[in-house]
UniProtKB/TrEMBL annotation:
This protein's name: Divalent metal cation transporter MntH
Alphabetical UniProt keywords: Cell membrane, Ion transport, Membrane, Symport, Transmembrane, Transmembrane helix, Transport
Originating organism: Paenibacillus barcinonensis
Chief place of localization: membrane
Classification via PANTHER family: NATURAL RESISTANCE-ASSOCIATED MACROPHAGE PROTEIN 2 (PTHR11706:SF33), SOLUTE CARRIER PROTEIN FAMILY 11 MEMBER (PTHR11706)
TM region positions: 20-39, 54-75, 95-114, 134-151, 163-183, 203-223, 253-276, 288-310, 342-361, 367-391, 403-425
Localization in the cell: Cell membrane; Membrane
Length: 431
């Protein structure tokens, strides 16, 4: 079977006899491409709603869901390094043709839903910052597919560098907004401790499940298992063990940055809106417009808009890359990268254009919610095969999950399945 992302496979050298930190730097990159999905526009609405309604209480949920993500992404990275297969290729090898086709269709729907969230998020940012109508903003986002094509011609490291720069931009914007919001640090620290109130209060539980459902992105598991193979590693037990260690360090650090950004969105919302008695702020555009009068400076709103635009563009880069990996992995069909990305983008833009033209801005907010429900539906179909494959001694050998890791990963899978089913039922009842 041909390697995943053939044009970039083993394209980046790893120094053999260098000190540990130089080796680690060679592995830095894939974790940040993955972390992007954990702070995309689909996460913003749940974080804003959680902060405005319940203050700092749901910070513990962001922390727990991030810890789940760290475990699952480390498994995805390990699968790619040990077997030389991405998750989609592993599914094609292990499952029957009808099952593979079903998994592929579900995954394509999830990627289209993710892309839809990025398109709408970017269009909202363009409207807020430059007063560009939503319909035109949605169409403009079609152009950013060209950025990926240009960057991939310059090598995979160029793509990783842009993603890291955009992530740093988001972190800086929210760091300044945090300073301006002057949150109650005692309340923030207390918010990271789990509270029984989350389970007892149905409204709080619903948003908590929304945060978890929007955090672990199914396409990220396929993406990570592929892009870790861009590094040239020694195909020995020692070489693989070293690669797993550095890859896990990379994704854990990147996801910690994603944790900071998600927590910052909720903290700003809690410090600005909840403390002012505005407990119904849930939409991204409302948050943008209210930051200026409540904090007394337009800088806060501008930074919020810039961060949203950076988030949408970043997620677009990784979402379209995941689309290529999934098509190649499940179907073993290789079409030109530009065509694959154009198709992915059109699938997302067409419904966004139609809804924006008919229902306006309010319709796009509902479409954003629907995209998260589609993602929730697909998630178990990515998590369960991943845990299965990495626990299998036949394919993983000495790198198969130890008993404690099996227990932890299956528990996470079970929690995600149960909570997502609950979220879907509750969302259907709302419509």
């Amino acid at each position: 079977m041909a390697p995943s992302l053939g044009e970039a496979h083993s394209s980046m050298k790893v120094p053999k006899d260098a000190v540990w930190w130089k080796k680690f730097l060679a592995f830095v990159g894939p974790g940040y491409l993955v972390a992007v999905g954990y702070m995309d526009p689909g996460n913003w609405a749940t974080d804003i709603a959680g902060g405005s309604q319940f203050g700092y209480t749901l910070l513990s949920v962001i922390l727990i869901s991030n810890m789940m993500a760290v475990v699952l992404q480390s498994l995805a990275g390990k699968l790619g390094i040990v077997t030389g297969r991405d998750l989609a290729q592993a599914c094609r090898e292990r499952f029957s043709f009808p099952v593979v086709m079903m998994l592929w269709v579900l995954c394509e729907l999830a990627i289209a839903a993710t892309d839809l969230a990025e398109v709408i998020g970017s269009a909202i940012a363009l409207k807020l910052l430059f007063n560009i109508p939503m319909l035109y903003g949605v169409i403009i986002t079609a152009v950013d597919v060209l950025i990926i094509l240009v960057l991939q011609n310059k090598g995979f490291r160029a793509l990783e560098t842009l993603v890291i720069v955009l992530m740093a931009t988001i972190a800086l914007c929210f760091g300044i907004d945090l300073f301006l919001a002057k949150p109650d640090m005692g309340g923030v620290l207390h918010g990271f401790l789990p509270s029984s109130e989350i389970i007892q209060n149905p409204a709080m539980l619903y948003i908590a499940i929304g945060i978890i459902g929007a955090t672990v992105m199914p396409h990220n598991l396929y993406l990570h298992s592929s892009i870790v193979q861009t590094r040239q590693i020694e195909q020995t037990a020692q070489g693989k063990r070293e690669a797993i260690r550095y890859t896990t360090m990379d994704s854990t650090i990147a996801l910690t940055l994603a944790l900071f950004i998600n927590a910052a969105i909720l903290i700003v919302s809690a410090a600005v809106f909840h403390s002012a008695g505005m407990t119904q702020v849930a939409e991204i555009s409302d948050a943008y417009h209210l930051l200026t009068p409540l904090l007394g400076t337009t800088l806060a709103s501008v930074l919020f808009g810039v961060a949203l635009l950076a988030s949408g563009q970043n997620s677009t880069l990784t979402g379209t890359l995941a689309g290529q990996i999934v098509m190649e992995g499940f179907l073993n069909i290789r079409i030109p990268a530009w065509l694959r990305r154009l198709v992915t983008r059109l699938i997302a833009i067409i419904p966004a254009v139609i809804v924006t033209a008919i229902a306006g801005e309010h319709g796009t907010e509902e479409l954003l919610i629907l995209s998260q429900v589609i993602l929730s539906l697909q998630l178990p179909f990515a998590v369960i095969p991943l845990v299965m494959f990495t626990s299998d001694k036949k394919s993983m050998g000495q790198f198969a999950n130890k008993l404690w890791l099996k227990i932890v990963s299956w528990t996470i899978a079970a929690i995600i399945v149960v909570l997502n089913v609950y979220l879907i039922i509750q969302t259907i009842m709302l419509f």
